[in-house]
Amino acid sequence: MSSTATTERRLRQLAEALAGKRRLLILTHDNPDPDCIASGWALIKVVRKVAGLKADLAYAGIIGRAENRTLARVLRVPIKPIEAVDLDDYDAFALVDSQPETGNNSLPAGTPATVVVDHHPCRDATRAAAFYDVREEYGATATILSEYLDAAEVKVEKKLATAMFYAIKTETLNLGREASRADAKAFFRYFPIMDNEALSQIENPPISRAYFRMIDQAIEGTHLFGDVAITRLGEVNNPDMVAQFADLMVRMEKIEWAVTIGRYGKDLLVSARTNLPLANAGRVIQQVVGAEGKAGGHGMMAGGKIPGGAETPKLANELERKMKARALELLGAKSRGVRLVPVRRSRS
User: Fold this and answer.
1) Interval 190-204: pLDDT, tens
2) Which residue intervals define the domain DDH in the entry (predicted)?
3) What's the predicted TM-score (pTM) here?
4) What single-letter DSSP state applies at residue 61?
């Protein structure tokens, strides 16, 4: 069966799963990134076309990264915080770029997901959804939705095209990280029709002074263990910073793995990045977090959370030391750690 025929069949199954439903709420993962924002927006268009159903897009947490806030603002993405919606208005729920029981979305407890679309490893709870499409071999969830848009013959205007292009661009690092042929096809599908001026604004937003202060904090909190960099950020003012600094640290010369730990509110967050194409960062981070929390990801990037792990400084320190030790053991880091920068001595 051709890929087009397969996608058309999936759209029929999607329409069947939503038959008789009144209204759909699409949920991104918490603290959304470009991939889930664009995917959720695209799914609104798709379900309207194939199922005649009104859908809304919501997220929990914050849109923390400057680029992501600019994307939502400049492109006027129809996304709202979950506090702004009444869950009783919906009788169907979808998850994009996330799955049930991952601990990183706000699907109400005890509420089954009607629809799940994702590119992370499929979880058992996902198979209970009326419709699910999980393709681990794809580099971005937006690529799956791109195929839906084409098969449903949805006209993609400039703003959505820009969001889809940027989602695939960032998720695959310009097609250089875990990108499939389908990702490349979608990437070049949107390149001619996206808004270059809007993209430039998204990629070059004003950056807060707090971010620059956090750079200093991150550098001081980084220890190197051979080809492994472990960073303890301490308190962060937005959760995206944990992943953002993992992205930065893995770019350091002679580093193959970066693990970054931060405290946001009462939670402990951890991100892992690697530049080894055959690695399994998702499995590593699940073992680093252990039974204390939840984690997920795929080959070269992953993240996890321990709810309540930063309830007290003492608890956070204990858990951070435990996660650091697990990471070093799992990654086979044998050298003695050294600070990225020497301890600064006060001047007399």
Assistant:
1) 999 999 999 999 999
2) 24-168
3) 0.90
4) S
pLDDT in tens, 40-77: 999 999 999 999 999 999 999 999 999 999 999 999 99
Give the distance between the most distant pair of CA atoms in the chain. Answer: 76
- Work out the angle at residue 168's Cα, subtended by the Cα atoms of residues 165 and 172, and round it to the nearest 5 degrees: 145
Residue among 286, 326, 310 at smallest CA distance from 104:
286
- Report the b/e string of 158-194 with b at 16+ CB within 10 A: ebbbbbbbbbbbbbbeebebbbbebbeebbebbeeeb
Sheet with 131-134, edge to edge strand ranges:
79-81, 55-59, 24-27, 92-96, 115-118, 131-134
Give yes or no for a contact between 150 and 135, defined as CB atoms under 8 angstroms apart. Answer: no
Q: How far from the centroid of its chain's Cα atoms is residue 285's Cα?
A: 14
254 Rama sector, left if φ>0, alpha if ψ -120 to 50, beta otherwise: left
Q: Which segments of the chain are extended strands (E)?
A: 24-27, 55-59, 79-81, 92-96, 115-118, 131-134, 222-225, 228-235, 257-264, 267-274, 294-297, 301-306, 338-339
The rounded distance, in Å, linking the Cα atoms of 183 and 186 is 5
Six-digit token string for 239: 């959760």
